[in-house]
Design a protein that fits this description.
With 478 residues, this protein is an alpha/beta fold. It is built from 15 helices and 16 strands. The protein binds 6-O-phosphono-beta-D-glucopyranose.
């Protein structure tokens, strides 16, 4: 619908930004924290720096929260590092790890910032990986349950919004990139068994949150990439639906309806796949009633039909940061992704598509009628300090303005959206490009080549965003 006036955001809308422990904290060996599998994964992404220091938020959290307050935040989404809470296979958690998150949460509350906490954002402790073969062994379900119960008990008096797993769908779809797939040759079938074990962990977290946290609310965090059909050809429409199913809808239907949908059951049958669902699993899953969807959305994709006789092709992500280095996947008989001539792209070939934000919110609302929060959205770019000592990032401002405007339009369209937390508050480590690909509203003075003073420098986008959120989404700075 077209509206004659600018969007109006609800009075109690939560405005903030987002981060993840392994990408922002650093201090990977401090106060008892042991190694996470994602630390080892980040060490492989040369020539970029690894996560051992990142933004050093572990030592700068007070300064960082003060900056959030100055910006006008009413929420902050961050994750807890499992290996800080359980550095080893002990029944006793690590008090120093608990202290760090208590201090962070207390600091946020002191500044009237609502903590929104993700329980798992890729940092599985190495001891868990070794004991349970990563996500392949069902033993991890109890280990995860013990970890999340500790978090709910320790922090649940102050943290009311919780997330189970970050981007489970992306972890399965890009198992190799995120270090989840252990045997690439059999991943095609293994992934559904691994996915079921992750679903059990998600369900355990949802049930435990409702049991242990008074007025606690919990939801999953799917990575969402709306998929458009490449043309009005009916086959392209079905291809787009297939892509949507196999990259996101299968997960979203599962979270909302608490059962596997008909599409995935047919897919398993057709491909002779057994996800190894055991007796009692579906009963637990049925109990795991989510309260909201947390959504990460950066871009859109476009799909067209792919004949059954076509050669399959893997998705080759652009890891170089030089435009034109991406190869779209082909999945014979289902779909292939393709370029969209109507949208621009970033240096990493990510589509810049604000309308995708409104499309996603409308789609998820129409399908599930659950409140939604935006937990990631942002512009990854090369930033640097100018001669005037400032960081000018007009493209990020443009990106955020266009995207937030579409969130507002979706709200006007009738969707229930409760918060917006873009990626990221400070610069932090990207999944594949160290400190080269930056998303922050605040610049961190360091590079992949050289460790500098880690000074926090407010980017132009910081001031723009601050004006917008202090006016509850009415000062667009136009
Ligand atoms: C999301 C992840 O998928 O995308 C974040 O939850 C990640 O962890 C973000 O950093 C941006 O991706 P990248 O590869 O540019 O860091």
């Amino acid at each position: 619908m077209f509206y004659k006036q600018d969007p109006v955001f609800p009075k109690d809308f939560l405005w903030g930004a987002s981060s993840a422990a392994w990408q922002v904290e650093g201090a990977v060996n401090e106060d008892g924290r042991t190694t996470a599998i994602i630390d080892l994964n980040s060490q492989k992404k040369k020539p970029y720096t690894d996560n051992s220091i990142a933004a050093d938020h572990y030592h700068h959290y007070e300064e960082d929260v003060k900056l959030m307050a100055e910006c006008g935040f009413s929420s902050y989404r961050f994750s807890i590092a499992w290996p800080r809470i359980y550095p080893s296979d002990s029944t006793e958690p690590n008090q120093k790890g608990i202290d760090f998150y208590n201090n962070l949460i207390n600091e946020l509350i002191k500044h009237n910032i609502e903590p929104i906490v993700t329980l798992y954002h890729y940092d599985m402790p190495v001891w868990v990986d070794e004991k349970y073969n990563g996500w392949y062994d069902r033993g991890i379900i109890d280990a995860f349950d013990r970890y999340v119960r500790t978090c709910f008990t320790e922090f649940g008096d102050r943290v009311k919004y919780w997330h189970s797993l970050n981007e489970q769908n992306m972890q399965i779809c890009y198992g190799d990139w995120l270090g989840v797939a252990k045997y690439p040759e059999t991943w095609f079938k293994d992934k559904w068994k691994v996915n079921h074990i992750m679903n059990m962990c998600h369900a355990k977290a949802v049930v435990a949150c409702h049991e242990l946290v008074e007025e606690g609310k919990i939801g999953p965090v799917p990575g969402y990439v709306p998929i458009y059909p490449a043309s009005a050809h009916p086959d392209d429409q079905i291809a787009a639906m297939n892509a949507e199913e196999l990259t996101e809808k299968v997960w979203n239907d599962f979270y909302a309806h608490r059962e596997y949908n008909g599409f995935i059951k047919s897919y398993w049958k057709e491909n002779d796949i057994d996800p190894e669902i055991q007796e009692g699993d579906m009963e637990l899953i049925k109990e795991a009633r989510i309260d909201f969807f947390a959504l990460n959305c950066y871009r859109s994709n476009t799909a067209k039909a792919c004949g059954i006789d076509e050669e399959p092709r893997e998705y080759k992500l652009n890891k170089s940061g030089v435009k034109g280095n991406l190869e779209f996947p082909k999945v014979p008989g289902l779909y292939q992704l393709t370029e969209n001539p109507y949208v621009e792209t970033t240096d990493w070939d990510w589509e810049i598509d604000p309308v995708a934000m409104r499309y996603m919110l409308r789609y998820v609302w129409d399908h599930y009628q659950l409140p939604m929060m935006i937990t990631e959205n942002g512009y990854g770019a090369y930033d640097s300090v100018s001669e005037d000592g400032k960081v000018h990032d007009p493209k990020r401002i443009e990106f955020l303005r266009d995207q937030i405007y579409q969130v507002g339009l979706a709200i006007m369209d009738g969707c229930e959206v409760i918060s917006y937390n873009p990626w990221s508050f400070t610069d932090l480590l990207s999944t594949g490009n160290g400190m080269a690909k930056r998303y922050g509203l605040v610049y961190i003075n360091t590079t992949d080549e050289e460790l500098l003073d880690l000074k926090r420098i407010r980017k132009d986008s910081f001031y723009w965003y601050s004006n917008l959120i202090k006016s509850n989404g009415s000062d667009w700075g136009k």
